[in-house]
Amino acid sequence: VHKIMAQPITFVPPLPAPLDWSTFGNANVKKFIDNAIRVCQPKDVAIFDGSVEEYHRICDMCEMSGMFMALNPYLYPRSYLIRSHPGDTARSEARTFVCGPMNEKLYQVPLSAIPKDLGFGYGCRAGESVSGSKDAELNTEQMRELLYHEFTGCMAGRTMWIVPFSMGPLNSEFCKLGIEISDSPYVVAHMYTMARTGIEVLKRLSAPNAYFLPCWHSVGLPLTPGEKDVPWPCRKENNRKFIAHFTTADPSCPEMGPYSVMSIGSGYGGNALLGKKCYALRIASRMAAFEPVKWMAEHMLILHVRHTPKGAPAKDYFLTGAFPSACGKTNLAMVEVPREFADEWKVTCLGDDIAWIRMDTQGRLCALNPEAGFFGVAPGTSNESNGNAMAAMRAGNTLFTNVGVTRDGDVWWKGKSPEMPEHLIDWHGVPVETHGLDKEALSKLQNTIAQPNSRYTTPCVQCPSVDPLWNAGEGVPIDAFLFGGRRRSLTPLVFRCPDWEDGVLTGATLRSEQTAAADRPEGSLFFDPMAMRPFIGYNMGKYFDHWLEMGRLAPNHPDIYCVNWFRRAKEGKKDFLWAGFGQNFRVLRWICELAQAKRDGRPLPQANTLGLVPTCQDLLLDREGVHVGPLPAGMTAPKPMGCSCILEVTPTDPEWHQELLDERAFLDLLGSDLSEG
Ligand code: GTP
Ligand code: MN
Ligand code: MN
User: Fold this and answer.
1) Which is the closest atom of ligand 1 to the Cα of 353?
2) For ligand 1, is residue 641 a contact (CB within 6 Å)?
3) I need a surface site. Which of 107, 226, 315, 526 has the fewest CB within 10 A?
4) What is the pTM of this model?
């Protein structure tokens, strides 16, 4: 209900009666807040009531302080540009700690012993030794002591915001509550869009036994009296940042349960919006495996395909997909059906990053997006590549971080338009000088306008392709799970795993190429099991076991597929062989047709050793990649989409042999944590 209020176009319910603050929260809420105030010593304290008025007040306040810059309201109504500190632009994996019970480790071997060329040597766990990081050698209780020490007096001179929030709709079995305390108004404004906040959450927290996750966040930069603040407060030294997850009870308040998150020193993204990666993935993945009723928390998009054949009733399919960061989840979630299919087919979006999954009474696995907004990568997003995301941004209420801005208050990043506009200011706030530059220099310059991990934050409801069920408390029954990474060779465009166990193995050994952003050679491979490597909140072997168990518990579990949009030519220009984006719909369509065959009890085609790979015909392409079949009136055949070689699998290729050896070496790291299954 409260989310509707962010929408100027939707019905606005009457304002709730003013809340009696003295009655807010049960005994644990009061205890958590009292303790946080005592430790952090803020200048003052504010409870965020989640109303649109309060959100706008915070944005206005940030505009006056210089942190937010209003964009042109005719282009992006009520939207702002924010520039972070240049050292605070992404998740800090090496400063992320999961502090579990003693002796519980992520892998059998110490992280430092994992060969770097397996691409797996980061993501610290308390109690484990990581090269160069003394903190990682502390055990859980020492780590907690360290964090309490870091938080002591950390909010001096600043306002502490108390943000009660819900992940998932309140009327849902999936719903999980949290309270984030933060001294960053940027974080509060983002929580308003990304999570569900508001009076109903506050009321819920007054129930005597209401559970919430205590989430501590601070930029970690106290102000002395009279000291002038900086535009983006954070800790400049990386080793003074901590994103710590605790999964054992705090001895000073055991009644609050085993879980808490304490994050200090960073104000950006997954480091600071604690409902997202910290709660909805790391803590939730552990809750999901350890609660009596088992469920799953995954790094997945959720989409809905509706097929309405002429003169027949509509058929609905729900798919989810786990691809590592920057491998296309947001783009696939909002995919536009190509014109040649648009008469009968429609794709709508339920989520672009996180799926919580529970079994229903029919033994199906049902997915729900616990978030309420999109936090999407800006570079590469355009009307052509993702028109739905662009329209969602233009609907207003969008916060842009670290993108470029034009003289007339428009935003810009590489790929937003083919030509770079004149009079740009880059993400550092420096005017861009283009005068006298040649074509090559101009093209290079484009990469520096926005930070590579610059993002837009916008409410889900504003996406034109948002699914009517995106907010439905019971989730949607999943027909297929997709795993996918960036692979220049070997793995074909798509294959269907023969069964659940094989699919789990395929997900567990998911590999993807390093993108240009990181410090390893571009194209080098790293393992990213289920796209969850940075987000698994407990032992990785146990996590794989949990996947196997969910398949056994849910008799009508989804089929598992593996996709790869990124195969390249071996010779010549080495471009991508597959056009991707909208054309990925051909793969979705094939998956839905197989789902329908299964529903109808029809036999499936013969599979090869890897699994079932479609023919060109299955994708409605000829061997050269030209569309076959009728086209809408007035439409000419589109240019080739790819060719038969993206579907080729050559088991005798020595690269496959090496692939299997690498997979074995990776799984051996888990040693006896891995069950026989
Ligand atoms: P996170 O939000 O970090 O978890 O990443 P994501 O999985 O949502 O990735 P996103 O959809 O933002 O895409 C990342 C990059 O992949 C962008 O540069 C896209 O342009 C590119 N991309 C997405 N889909 C395709 C595709 O089908 N083909 C090709 N060639 N590139 C794609
Ligand atoms: Mn995304
Ligand atoms: Mn993500």
Assistant:
1) 4
2) no
3) 226
4) 0.94
Q: How confident is the model at residue 275 (pLDDT cuts 50, 70, 90)?
A: very high
356 touches 295 (CB < 8 A) = yes
pLDDT reading at 199 higher than 70? yes
DSSP 309: -
Distance 581 CA to ligand 1 centre (A): 9
Residue 119 pLDDT:
42
Q: Does any ligand 1 atom lie closer than 6 A to the CB of residue 576? A: yes
The pairing of beta strand 96-99 with beta strand 124-125:
parallel
Q: CB-based contacts of 15: which residues, under 8 Å, 6+ apart?
A: 51
Dist. CA 523–CA 521, nearest whole Å: 6
Strand ranges inside 168-218, DSSP E: 176-182, 196-197, 213-218
**CA 81/CA 90 separation, integer angstroms:** 17
Q: How far apart are CA 350 and CA 367, in angstroms?
A: 9
Q: What is the pLDDT of residue 124?
A: 46
Residue 608: φ, ψ to 5°: -90, -170
The answer to whether 112 touches 432, Cβ cutoff 8 Å, is no
- Report the C-alpha gap between 195 and 169 in whole angstroms: 9
pLDDT tens, position by position, 121-170: 334 454 443 334 556 667 788 889 999 999 999 999 999 999 999 999 99
Contact between 47 and 38 under an 8 Å Cβ cutoff? The reply is no
CA pair distance 325, 580, nearest whole angstrom: 17
Ligand 1 pocket check for 580: Cβ under 6 Å: yes
Alpha-carbon span 595 to 480, nearest angstrom = 8
**Residue 580 to residue 589: CA distance in whole angstroms:** 14
344's tokens? 């009968």
d(CA 331, CA 177): 29
Distance 116 CA to ligand 2 centre (A): 27
- State the residue for tokens 């083919």: 418
Q: How many residues does the chain have?
A: 677
Cα–Cα dist 312/69, whole Å: 52
What is the whole-number distance in angstroms between the Cα of residue 493 and the centre of ligand 2?
21
Cα separation, 81 vs 96, in Å, equals 27
Q: What is the DSSP letter of 275?
A: I
Cβ 515 under 6 angstroms from ligand 1: no
Tokens of 648: 């080729």
Contact 524, 446 (CB under 8 A): no
Cβ of 486 closer than 6 Å to ligand 1, yes or no, is no
Among protein residues, the one whose CA lies closest to atom 18 of ligand 1: 380
SS3 671: helix
Whether 541 and 673 have beta carbons less than 8 Å apart is answered as yes
Q: Is 384 in the pocket of ligand 1 (CB under 6 A)?
A: no
Find the 330 Cα to ligand 1 centroid distance in Å.
Answer: 7
Shortest-distance atom of ligand 1 to CA 333: 11
Given the residues 59, 327, 366, 643, the one annotated as active site: 327
358 Cβ contact partners less than 8 Å away, ≥ 6 residues apart? 173, 174, 293, 295, 296, 365, 366, 368, 475
Q: Quote the ligand 1 centre to 329 CA distance (angstroms).
A: 6
CA-nearest residue, atom 21 of ligand 1: 328
* Whether residue 565 has its Cβ less than 6 Å from ligand 1: yes
* Locus of tokens 């529970």: 358
Can 327 be counted among the known catalytic residues? yes
Rounded alpha-carbon distances, angstroms, from residue 318 to 53, 57, 542, 555, 559: 36, 39, 27, 17, 11
Instruction: Pick the residue whose CA is nearest to atom 15 on ligand 1.
Output: 326
